[in-house]
Specification:
By secondary structure, this protein is α/β, with parallel strands linked by helices. It has 16 helices and 12 strands.
Length: about 400
């Protein structure tokens, strides 16, 4: 039986993971949960999953839960998240925290040699070189949960590594796939959150709208599968049924298809290397009817270009890019930044870092770069706000 420690249990991936695990009680149990501030949802998870350890963001919430559930070990903050990742009974850690918040506990899980089901893109974007080297040292197995990398993981089992020509990531195109470039400056947060095919958290949904999500996935694919940036392609596929493809040197394309439901890649990762019979409805090809593919537009969606530049730049540049993006997306969601200013903030922060970027020698280097990127991005956001205020 796999015993799960779930980082980000109240988010979309975390709740889907617990749903899948509950369908196979003879195969999976839950020993620890880390959540943020959604304590109401966490209460229900404690009752249904009966973990021995939970962690929350705030100390006050931790005290309240400890009083409500006598005998339950309740922690808070980063120390609490690390404790969940290092739970002595856990065989498998699910990394589903949003953003760079997930880096430190995930790093500890990898150092411990745990099986890691990774849904947190930022871990490999910020510190991919360090994390993969540590996994090699510790023997940790990293299984991607993101639908695209999960699809690549499956398709790469068809042929030997030296027969792979390129990886092809598919992108839905987000809610603005057909929006004219001139109209993008006026889009609202509500419009950006109206994703046509997936239901996700706010941050990742905005990343899909800017296509930064796919840029992060390029970097993640590089570290997971060892291919250079110029052999990782992106195509827009609005139906979101082909989750990614591998092209082999003989011209064969191997694609992975399923319903656009995150429970499918989660089930694959939880069961690996086995396959379990799915309790969920499968893809009806006849009802689907047709599939469409388009070129990704890096002019209208410059975040794709920026991610490639960050990967080529290496060192601390990807960490700064990711941090600046998180700050800019938060400002956009709060109404303090325009949609097109998101990539502008990211690009200016990257340019500032590029001149002084150094190699990642330690986790502290990555965390320092993350902090610099956030500080610079906040300065830039304030300048945009001031400029917008003075123009009114």
């Amino acid at each position: 039986m796999k015993r799960l420690a779930v980082l980000g249990s109240t988010g979309s991936i975390g709740t889907a993971t617990l749903d899948v695990a509950s369908r196979f009680p003879e195969r999976f149990s839950v020993v620890a949960l880390a959540a943020g501030r959604n304590v109401d949802l966490l209460r229900g998870q404690i009752v249904s999953c009966r973990p021995s350890l939970v962690a929350v963001a705030d100390e006050a919430d931790a005290r309240s839960l400890a009083a409500e559930f006598p005998g339950l070990d309740v922690r808070h903050g980063e120390a609490g998240r690390i404790a969940v990742a290092l739970h002595p009974e856990a065989t498998t850690v699910v990394g589903a925290l949003v953003g760079a918040l997930g880096l430190v506990p995930t790093w500890h899980a990898v150092r411990q040699g745990r099986e890691l089901l990774l849904a947190n893109k930022e871990t490999l974007v910020v510190a991919g070189e360090l994390v993969m080297a540590e996994a090699t040292r510790s023997g940790a197995v990293i299984l991607p949960v993101d639908s695209e990398h999960n699809a690549l993981h499956q398709a790469l089992r068809v042929g030997p590594p030296d027969a792979v020509s390129r990886l092809i990531l598919t992108a839905s195109g987000g809610p603005f796939r057909t929006t004219a470039a001139a109209d993008l400056a006026r889009v609202t947060a509500a419009e950006a959150l109206a994703h046509p095919t997936w239901r996700m958290g706010a941050k990742i949904t905005v990343d899909s709208a800017t296509m930064m999500n796919k840029g992060l996935e390029i970097i993640e694919a590089h570290w997971l599968f060892g291919l250079p940036e110029d052999r990782i392609a992106v195509v827009v596929h609005p139906e979101s049924r082909v989750h990614s493809l591998v092209e082999y040197v003989d011209g064969t394309l191997i694609a992975q298809l399923s319903v656009n439901d995150m429970r499918f890649p989660i089930l694959y990762a939880l069961a690996y290397p086995e396959r379990l019979a799915s309790p969920f409805p499968s893809l009806d090809l006849v009802a689907l009817g047709s599939l469409h593919f388009e070129a990704a537009d890096e002019v209208r969606f410059p975040c794709l270009r920026l991610a490639r530049e960050a990967l080529r730049g290496g060192g601390t540049v990807p960490a700064v890019m990711n941090a600046a993006n998180e700050v800019a997306v938060e400002a956009f969601l709060g109404g303090g930044l325009g949609f097109l200013a998101i990539p502008e903030v990211v690009e200016r922060a990257m340019a500032r870092e590029s001149g002084a970027s150094g190699p990642l020698a330690s986790l502290e280097d990555a965390l320092d770069a993350d902090a610099r990127g956030r500080a610079w991005a906040r300065e830039l956001v304030e300048k945009y706000r001031s400029a917008e205020g003075s123009s009114r």
